[in-house]
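We give its fold:
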Amino acid sequence: MDTLLQQIVNGLVVGSVYALVALGYTMVYGILGLINFAHGEVVMIGAMTALQVIGLLMGVAPDMAPLWMLAIAVAVAVVVCMALGYLMERLAYRRLRNAPRLAPLITAIGLSFLLQTLAMIFWGRGNHSFPQLIATAPITLVGDVVITPVQIAIIVISALMMGGLLMLVNRTRFGRAMRATAENHRVAQLMGVNTHAIIALSFVIGAGLAAVAGVMIASNYGIANYSMGFMPGLKAFTAAVLGGIGNLAGAVVGGLVLGLVEAVGAGYIEHLSFGFLNSSYQDIFAFTILGLVLIFRPTGLLGERVSDRA
């Protein structure tokens, strides 16, 4: 039972990060019908930027409180990633809105490799140690089940940001404009909505969430490198598909479900495979879920079935 509870805690931590990144995927897809496969690299840029800022602050102001140092690093990373998200939309995707669907998809994959290569040139190929600015001493919950302050911060901050985004989309004028743009671009323009600005802001908001997620991943594992965003990006895409891509609540549910399945599966995979596999094969669960969802329920858990009229 302690093992199961520990894996549930781990799953909530990982699932919170997946959900945060998945929101960026689902916002862009809901408005443009575009899968931004470069979104995982935005996660990486956020982590590496924060690492760079922390290193600079440690040299300039070594006596600064660790939490202030982390807060400044996150703020700079968010600004940098928001600017990157805007540039991606403005320079790459905006020109392809009326192009065949394959063109934006290939462009997104190309952007992903471009950002990875630029990061590799700038920060190198090796792993970088990410400073642990939040206490990492484990806190016992019950029995042998433990959680660290970093993991508590990840869950709480992710919940607040996801809740804030859902309120923004469902309760504000900007949210109504976003939903109108997602429903029909041309009609939204006729109603006075600046669809270009709404689409750009969707990329910017998604990139800001990705920056925070990148810092969370680096803080939780203590390392960062140029390719760290690739696998979380793919898993967040899986979470978005699982929940119903284009549905914000679905992205949150999909991320949490995927995190729990992956963590519990990793805890018991050795028993399930009779010793042939170990926890390093935990990625199999994410992509097995993706295949099953695409086969049996392509619309996802919370997606709506839409019928085409002849």
